[in-house]
Structure formats: C-alpha cells, structure tokens
Amino acid sequence: MKHISIGGLQVSRIGLGAMSMSGYYNVGMGSDAESIRTIHRALDLGVTHFDTAEIYGPYINEELVGRAIKGRRDQIVLATKFGLFSHAGGGPGVLDSSPANIRAAVDGSLKRLGTDHIDLYYQHRVDPKTPIEDTIGTLVDLIAAGKVRYIGLSEAGPATIRRAHAVHPVAALQTEYSLWTRDPEAELLPLLRELGIGFVPYSPLGHGFLTGEIRSPEQLSDDDWRKTNPRFSGENFRRNLRIVDEVKAVAAEVNATPAQIALAWLLAQGDDIAPIPGTKRVARVEENIAADQLHLSAEQIERLNNLAPAVGERHDAGNMAVIDR
Ligand SMILES: NC(=O)c1ccc[n+]([C@@H]2O[C@H](COP(=O)([O-])OP(=O)(O)OC[C@H]3O[C@@H](n4cnc5c(N)ncnc54)[C@H](OP(=O)(O)O)[C@@H]3O)[C@@H](O)[C@H]2O)c1
C-alpha cells in the first residue's frame, strides 16, 4: 500500500471509514465480529488510516474501533471527530464546537477508543456560534497536552479554512468527494494545495451507489439513511444509474470492479488525497484496498471526468443547511 502525506501526517492512501459498522446503511446486516475482522484485514493489507466519530452511534462506533485496534494502536493513524454532539444538554445532532464541549468530547473519545492520543481530530461541522479561532485554540491546547497530534476540519468552507489555518496548521479537510460529487474541485482543492492541507474524501463510493450493487431505491430498507438522500429517490435514482453504467464500462475494460474504479479515479487526482471508503465486510475491504494497484489510462480518466453530473442534492435540506460554504 502506497503511503502519502496529508498535511505532514503519513497515511496509507486508502483508509477505512468505520461509520457503516454502526448503522446508517444496510442496517442490521453484518455483525460487530465481522466489522472487527474487517478492520483487522485492512490492517493486515497495509491500511493505517481509520476514521470514526463521536456521533456515529453515538459512541458505539468509537467503542467498536477501540476494541478492534487493541494491541495494534501503534500501527494506526486514528481519526475521530467532535462537534456534532453537545455535552451541555443539547445531545446528538446539535452543533457545538465551544471550548468546553471539545474538552468534554475529547476525554470521552479517548476512553472509548482505548488510547491516550488521537492522531487526527476533526471538527465534524463548523459551528456558527463559536468563532473558529476559539475552536482551533482549544485544539492547540489539546496538542500541547499530548491528547491530539493533528487537526482536521470537515465540510468547512474556504473562509473558515483560511481562518483556522492562520491559528494553527490544519492537516486535513474531510469533505464528500467522488465521481458523483465533484464540488470540491472548483475552489476547495486549489485552496488546500495552496495551504499544504491534505484532503480526505468521505463517501468516496457515493454511499455505495457507485459500486453498482444498488439498482433501485426499493433495495433499501426504510431505516437506511440513504432513503433521506435526494440522489437515491425515485426519478433521480433512475437518472443517476447512467453514471454507474459508465463506471461499469470502464471497470470491464480493466478487469476491475466499479468500486475499484471509483477509488482509482480519486487516487489519480493527486498524492494529497486519501479516501476512506466504508465497509463492514472483509471481502469488500479486500476489494477496495486492491484499487491501490489499479492503473487507469489518461483516456479512461478523461471519460470518468466527463461523466454526467449527479441529479439531486448530495444531502437533504437539513444536512445541507449545516454545511459551511
Ligand atoms: N465527515 C463527514 O461528515 C462524513 C460523512 C459521511 C461519511 N464519513 C466517513 O467516510 C466514510 C466512508 O463514507 P460512507 O460510508 O458514507 O460511504 P462510501 O464509502 O461511499 O460507501 C459505503 C457503502 O458502500 C458499501 N460498499 C463498500 N464497499 C463496497 C464494495 N466493494 N462493493 C459494494 N458495496 C460496497 C458499504 O456497504 P457495507 O458496509 O454493507 O459493506 C456501504 O453501504 C465513513 O465510514 C465515515 O468514516 C464522514
């Protein structure tokens, strides 16, 4: 597995997102035992970069990751996130990046993860009530205390990134980026490159859509998070299938799977890009990691670059409203 630097932090260029091990997609399928085997298999295949968050569950995803990495902590770049759970009474889903909330959150995350330090600690969403300078200032204190090594932001807009980076170097921005979510290319990627910040694309498989495994919205159960996503609904879903059909055509040419093409395309965008595909299954983690070995021709990359844009917003209105622009 090739390793790259994201803002000075060395990571395997393909990581593993743990979110779907604790609900969200295909709820009820899989098991904690299979999830832990998936994390172990990823480690054995050279993955070092693992991503979780306080809000996933909440809490149970960090606990699961903590159990899985026991005894192997020193092989891992451990990333987690705060700011989508307010410990002052608001609870889950409430934006809170105030200094007091960060101090409460970090100790809980460390305990659940069974570690004394977090390698990459992200603000999960920008909190309009707390100046970003105050948030970063608190993270700088946590670095001084040895609890955190590197700072990340998630779904932050250009102005916030510049302000944060002026207080202390930001190592990585985590934002949705994939063959059907190309928004970061216009403004964010050039800014990150100017500032020397790495980029961690989340949902690099389009929440599973780009793998070609889901051919109709009816395949998703009612408690699947994707039911709330406009791109997975009705007519939008059917129109978006032409994207995955073109990905499949490229996959057939190089004897790969659509998931591998989606990841190889992201890796071809630069050596500062470290996607974190999510899965709770050993076979799929093996498949996804093999994308590290895949080479796409310039012509294939161009065809993928020219795919029709996705139909539908990438989140529902509530989730779009908390994205900083
Ligand atoms: N910062 C943020 O706000 C934010 C938001 C969303 C996600 N994330 C992070 O990004 C990570 C990845 O994003 P994501 O999980 O939303 O989406 P994703 O990686 O684009 O897709 C995950 C989905 O694809 C399926 N899948 C994975 N590999 C597959 C394969 N080879 N063939 C067929 N299906 C496959 C998974 O199913 P199974 O699990 O059943 O295998 C799961 O349903 C998360 O785990 C989380 O750490 C961050």
Please tell me about this protein's structure:
With 325 residues, the chain is of the alpha/beta class. The protein has one domain: TIM Barrel. The protein is built from eleven helices and eleven strands. The protein has helices at 32-44, 60-69, 99-113, 132-144, 158-167, 188-195, 234-253, 258-267, 282-289, 298-305, 317-321, and strands spanning 3-6, 9-12, 16-17, 49-51, 77-82, 85-86, 91-92, 118-123, 148-154, 172-176, 198-202. The radius of gyration is 19 Å and the shape is globular. The two termini are 34 Å apart. The mean pLDDT is 97. NADP nicotinamide-adenine-dinucleotide phosphate (NAP) binds at residues 17-20, 25-26, 29-30, 51, 154-155, 174, 202-208, 211, 213, 259, 276-281, 284, 287-288.
Question: Brief overview, please?
Answer:
With 325 residues, the protein is of the alpha/beta class. 37% of the residues lie in helices and 14% in strands. The strands form 3 sheets. It has a 7-stranded parallel beta sheet with strand order 3-4-5-8-9-10-11, covered by helices on one side.
Say which CATH homologous superfamily is assigned: NADP-dependent oxidoreductase domain
Question: Ions, cofactors, ligands: which are bound?
Answer: NADP nicotinamide-adenine-dinucleotide phosphate
- Helix- and strand-based class? alpha/beta
Individual helix count: 11
Assembly type: single chain
Under CATH at level 1, the class stands as Alpha Beta
What is the average of the pLDDT values? Answer: 97
Number of domains: 1
**Topology as a string of helices (H) and strands (E):** EEEHEHEEEHEHEHEHEHHHHH
CATH fold group = TIM Barrel
Residue fraction in strands: 5-15%
Q: Can you give the helix content as a percent range?
A: 25-40%
InterPro entries: AKR (IPR020471), Aldo-Keto_reductase (IPR050791), NAD(P)_OxRdtase_dom_sf (IPR036812), NADP_OxRdtase_dom (IPR023210)
Keywords: Oxidoreductase
Protein name: Aldo/keto reductase
Organism: Labrys miyagiensis
